[in-house]
C-alpha cells in the first residue's frame, strides 16, 4: 500500500543545497516525525552543514567542495528508507491569548464556519499543537493539530502588515507572527509571548518538535 513518504523527490537548490520532498496531498504528522529524526541523523554526515525541516520536506545544505551532490542524493534515499518516526520530545509551552482584537478576523471566521465566537475559541484552544517546522520568517512556527473544522483558505488579499504576536490560522495550520510582516493568514487574537528575539540565545523561542497549548486569557467580542 502506498504511504506518504514512499517516493521522495529530490531537487537541487543552488550549488550547495538539496530539497528532499516527501509531501503528499495533505500534511502527514507521521511523515513529519520521520523528517525530524532524518534531519538529526544527517547532521553527522561529512560535508553536510545544516538541515532545515519544512512541512513534510527537508532542506539539506552541504559544502560542494567536500561532498558530491550525487553521493549525497544517494545517501538521502538510502538513509530515508532506514529512518523510523519517533514521538516528539520537545517542550510543552503554554501561550496566553487575548482572542478578538481590532482589525482581526475572529467574528468573520466564526460566521464563515457557522460557530459562535465562544465555540470557535474553544475549538482553537483545545488541541496541543506540534511545531512541525520553523521558517518563512525568523522564528515563525508552522503548528500542526488545528481542528479540521477550522481549516480555512488564506485571505484572497493578504494584509501588508500583520502585527507581531498575532495568533493566526491558514489552511490546515495555526501560527503566531514573530514580527510585523505581510500575511494572508486569518487573525484570531494576540499574544505577548515573544517568538523571536535577536538578543536572546537561542533567538527563536520554539523549535521543531516542541508542543504548544493556547490558553484563553480573554475574549473581546
Can you describe what's shown?
- This protein is α+β, with helices and mostly antiparallel strands and 221 residues long.
- It folds into two domains: 9-81, Gyrase A, domain 2, CATH 3.30.1360; 92-219, Cyclophilin (Beta Barrel), CATH 2.40.100.
- It contains four helices and 13 strands.
- Strands 7-6-13-5-12-9-10 form a seven-stranded mixed beta sheet. A four-stranded antiparallel beta sheet has the order 1-2-4-3, covered by helices on one side.
- The chain is elongated and about 60 Å long.
- The termini are far apart.
- Residues 8-206 form the Carboxyltransferase domain.
- GO terms for molecular function: ATP binding; hydrolase activity.
- Pfam families: CT_C_D.
In short:
It comes from Ciceribacter naphthalenivorans. With 221 residues, the protein is of the alpha+beta class.
Summarize the helices and strands and which ones pair or pack:
Layout: E1 9-12, E2 17-21, H1 29-42, E3 48-53, E4 57-62, H2 69-81, E5 92-99, H3 106-113, H4 117-125, E6 129-134, E7 141-144, E8 159-162, E9 166-170, E10 173-176, E11 181-183, E12 186-190, E13 211-219
Parallel strand pairs: 5-13
Antiparallel strand pairs: 1-2, 2-4, 3-4, 5-12, 6-7, 6-13, 8-11, 9-10, 9-12
List the domain count as a whole number: 2
Number of helices: 4
Order of helices and strands: EEHEEHEHHEEEEEEEE
Structural class call reads alpha+beta
| Number of E-type strands | 13
Strand percentage: 25-35%
Corresponding CATH architecture of the largest domain: Beta Barrel
> Mean pLDDT score, rounded?
92
Rg value: 19 Å
Q: What order do the strands of the largest sheet run in, or round the barrel if closed?
A: 7-6-13-5-12-9-10
Q: Which shape, going by the Cα principal axes? A: elongated
Looking at CATH, the homologous superfamily of the largest domain is Cyclophilin-like
Measured between the Cα atoms of the first and last residue, the distance is: 48 Å
Low-confidence stretches: none
Provide the helix percentage: 10-25%
CATH topology descriptor of the largest domain? Cyclophilin
CATH class of the largest domain: Mainly Beta
- Main sheet record: 7 strands, mixed
GO molecular function: ATP binding; hydrolase activity
Pfam families: CT_C_D
Domain Carboxyltransferase: 8-206
Protein name: Allophanate hydrolase
